[in-house]
Amino acid sequence: MSFADAFQTYINNPEICKKITLYNDDTVIIIKDMFPKSLRHYLVIPKSPAVTHAHPLKVFNDNVKLYDILEDYVQLTKQYITDDLVKFGLLEDDPETIKQFKQTFIQCGVHSIPSLNNLHIHVMTRDFNSPRLKHKKHFNSFNTRFFVDFEDLNPIGENNNTEYSDSNSENLPDTEYSSGSDDSRTEISNYKFEMNPKKLHDLVKSTPLKCCYCGQSFGNSFSQLKKHLTVEFAKKFDTSKDITCNGMT
């Protein structure tokens, strides 16, 4: 089985990933990302054969029940993150502080072109202070419209117009996939979700690097961005504590 099918192995036999498993039931398995790009980076992996190979941008179309079910697990995963940060002294054990942290410093969503074949939802802190974050593509894959927020996938949410674009034409094709990305993160088309692989890869490659804390631009200088993120991280967290990503060495 190829690396792209690694999560299928976890679905079939959760015992083999017990060390990184946070939660497991008949519906999902929630694990620590083995290559975390932030202080805490977890994955919600649905088990159902009916959805596991569905495209993440289409799987919730007209399926409110599925979205609602997985939203509960996403919220649970957020709680795992804040509980762990409180445990390690990295987050104040205060209800309002925790609520604000969840709302402003945890992002949840999917990649428009997933690197692994099984459906998975990223739930992660927005610091990107990780030795596993090694190049521009890593950063931009989570900080451009290549990354689609989970709430934007809600089939009845105000942000979801269920339109797509996988055409190279500037005209909207009369097909099932007839929209692209809006410009809330980057301007690649006039439509909501972009699905054209070339446009998406170009987006990750060409979008200037921008700090996720303050918005400062670093152009193509990943090394300068990394240094800046380290400074911003130290303002946000007590670096005298254990800041190992996912608590993994």
Automatic annotation (TrEMBL):
Any Pfam family the entry gives: DcpS_C
InterPro entries named among the record's database cross-references: HIT-like_sf, Znf-C2HE
Region: Disordered, residue numbers: 158-184
Every Aprataxin C2HE/C2H2/C2HC zinc finger domain range: 143-234
GO BP terms: single strand break repair
Biased composition (Polar residues): 158-181
One MF annotation (Gene Ontology) recorded for this entry: single-stranded DNA binding
CC per GO annotation: nucleus
Protein name: HIT-like protein
